[in-house]
Amino acid sequence: MAEFEMRMAIEHLAQLDGVNIVEAWGETSFFYNPGNRFARGTYLATVKDRDGAGDRGSWLDRAGVWRLNLGVCPQTFADLFGERPARPPKGNVIEGPWDFTELDTLTPHPVYGWMGWIAIL
Question: Tell me, which fold does domain 2-120 have in CATH?
Fold first, then answer.
């Protein structure tokens, strides 16, 4: 079921006007690029289904677990979580009260929360 849900999320995002898909770094990335005016466009979202060397905070290697990551504007991030956390040291997660392994819970992205990204498993 989780694989089906992940594919459905990818297909839905792929149908949005001006969105380009790039498969790279073990994830599916979505860029907003109306009219294909740029090489890729603006990072919009990613779907990731396994841990990587620098991103293990969500334990994505568990069966059926995947993560939707979204880049949001600074005000949206602040409304949801308050101030952006500090950038974590390489290979670590941001500091804060969040459990990045909890399913169906919106959190800052475990690594890129400092850049205003949010995530849900």
Answer: Aspartate Aminotransferase, domain 1 (3.90.1150)
